[in-house]
Design a protein that fits this description.
The protein has 240 residues and is mostly helical. It has a two-stranded antiparallel ribbon with strand order 1-2.
Amino acid sequence: MSADISGLSVWFATPEYRFWRDRTTIALLPVAAPSILGLFGFAASTFMVAASLAGWYGNAEAPLILFPFALAAGGIAQLLAGMWAYRAQDAVATALHSMWGLFWIGYGLYTLLIALGVAPATSSAAAVAFGVWFVVLAAITWLGAVAAAAENIALTAALGTLATGSTLLAIALLRDVPVVQTIGAYVLLVSAALACYLAAAMMLEATAKRVVLPIGKRRTARLPGTVQRNVLVPGVTVAG
């Protein structure tokens, strides 16, 4: 350790270091938490579609009315949030927002194909194929829920209920069990409510500069958009 500090002191005293110090500009670019957008987009699209699956409203034409918003809020917004989360070094948000964003884009395109008469609206083969979507999503979301357990309770709960709802929908579609689909829809409604709460908590904390709604943080979180700074010198690395 002392050798590293001695070497660093020597480096700072060299003309080369002073040359680059005088010609280097560091600009800090504040980045809002991408998950605020992603969680709100997920909550809105999931609530509307899950409420329809639960039988709260709608008919055979309801999906055709819902899919544009689901495509925009659940698909495009979440995919953008996932890409921005990559820059913010948020691994869980990158994976989950991106995958669910792609799902909602696919759902929107599938619904559009139904409206155009290209894809079948109701058939056992279509239901099974759609159920496979949820098998994949459930597996990825369960992994995300396990990873989120190291961050905060609210995110773990949102992803856990999302994974549970996806699992139930997969079973309902693969085995044609309508009652399980209804139960899965209600679980997804809970997930949407939890996602909305978490997004609101993050937004309020960002504006108030303090915790307004507790989310059960398990560790000191890195601010979104910040990266680890390293000072590199020949033979010496000091993390900042």
